[in-house]
Each structure stands twice: as C-alpha cells, then as structure tokens.
Amino acid sequence: MDIFNTLQQSQLQRVSDGETAPLLSDHDAAQRLLVMVWPQLGDFDSLEYAWWLRRESEMLQAQGIVIRAVGIGDRNSGQQFCTYTDFPEDCLYVDPTAKLHQQLNLYPGLQLKVPGCSAVQNAYLNLLLMCAGIGSPGTLAEVFRGYRGDRNAPQLIADDEVVKAAPLPAVKGELFKNAGGKGFQRPFELATLRLRNMAEVLSHWGTYVPDASYVTQRGGTFLFEGDGTLVYEFCDRNILGFAANMSQPLEFLSIESPQESALTESQG
After folding, report:
1. Which of 133, 142, 160, 242 gives the lowest tally of CB atoms within 10 Å of its CB?
2. Is 268 part of any domain?
C-alpha cells in the first residue's frame, strides 16, 4: 500500500474552519511531514501524544517538521481537544467513522461480539477488556510505569508547575522532586498527568466521543520526507502504546533520512 498516496487523497473536515479539505494541503515547503492518525480524540493516547508535541514544539519548528493529525470524532470533539491540549486547530482533521484508519489497515482493537448486545455495548465491553490488557499487549505494564516512574524518561512536570487533576487537590511539581528527585520521570508523575486527562474526558465525554462504536480503534504515526518518502512508520497495537518507546515517544524524529544516511556513509 502506498501510504503517502492514501493520505494525500484523503479529504476530511478541518477543525479550524469546518471545511472539508485535503489532509496534506499546504505542506509543500516542509522539510519533513509528520502525520498522526489518532484513535478517538478522547482516548488517552491522543491526549498524551498531543502533550508531547506541545512539549517539543520548538524542536519540531527548528527541524522544519509540518504536522497533520486525524482523530476520530466530529468538529466539536476537535475543538474541545484543541482547547484542552493547545494543539493547532488548522492541523487537526476529524474522521467520524474511522474510514482512514480502515484504509490504512490500522488495528481496530478487540472485536468480541456478545449476542444480544448493540455495537456500542460491545465496543464498551471490548474497551474494558483492552484496559485490562486483553487484546492490548503492554497496556498494564505501561500503566504501572506511570506509577513507579522511569529513569529512562525525562522529567515531565517542572518544579514550579501546578497540576490540577480532579478529584485530587492541586499538586505542585516540587512534590515529585521531594518524593523521588529530579531530571527523570518520578513515581506517580505520569500517572498524575493521565489522571488529569481522564478527568477532562469524563467531564466532556459526550463531546469527545459522539459515537462510541470506534472506541477500541488504534492509530498510527507516519513520518515522510518533503518529497513523500516514508522515513518512519509505527502502528499502535494497544492502549497507551502510541510509540515504539513510550519513555521517549518522539525519539524517532531524530532518524536520518535515506539521503542523510548515504551522505554519512560517503563521508565515513
């Protein structure tokens, strides 16, 4: 399958203006193009991925990387998502029925069907099973990593930052320093950010998830050179598994292009 061609032919609703437009419009000047096909916009993975992109926004800009994202939902979902995450509305498109995900053969998640249950009821049941690690390998290990900390991951919350994650009281970043040190992901640090995301989604569930039929659908990440050459591809197989290395989810952006690799070899 020609992934770039599939993405290039996609016409989806853009969140910024509500217009149906080509997903890859206005990317011609990009040195690289990063396309993220996210699951439901209320999914943990979508929200956490957007957090990492905001954290590394200066690096993305310095490397001349243009970003495009597609999430399952409608324009209201997209607007709520962008308000919460600060993701740019003109870079986010919505796909209400996960059509693009299906075209790209992305993992639909667990698909057990219980006789007598509706499509939505089966979707919720499958989602609960996936949260328990069934049909979603690695999810429980990633949940535990969020609680125990990770010395291979960077510090996520600045000492002077205040995190509000209902129902917990507001937490200041220096609390994590006192509990575990600094300069790496401390115990409970990532879990606190995920709790904040969960509180956001549950308080706006109907907005984030207008149709729960697709709540198990997983996503994918595709990095292209400006000419459409695929440099990197990663397809999710589990909840909380949107990157090959969850300790450093955006490390793939340092991958050399084929041209750079050839130049390095010739100089060596």
Report:
1. 160
2. no
Which band of pLDDT confidence, cut at 50, 70 and 90, is reported for residue 268?
A: low
Torsion angles phi and psi, residue 52, rounded to 5: -65, -40
Provide the residue count of the chain: 268
Average of pLDDT values for 64-74? 96
Please check whether residue 224 lies inside any domain of the structure: yes
Domain that holds residue 136: 3-263
User: Domain count of the chain?
Assistant: 1
* Model-wide pTM > 0.85: yes
SS3 230: strand
Query: What's the CATH number where 98 sits?
Result: 3.40.30.10
Which is higher by pLDDT, 42 or 262? Answer: 42
Burial 192-207 (b: 16+ CB within 10 A, else e): bbbbbbeebbeebeeb
Q: Is 179 left (phi over 0), alpha (psi -120 to 50) or beta?
A: alpha
Query: Which among 37, 34, 30, 31 is positioned nearest to 10, based on CA atoms?
Result: 37
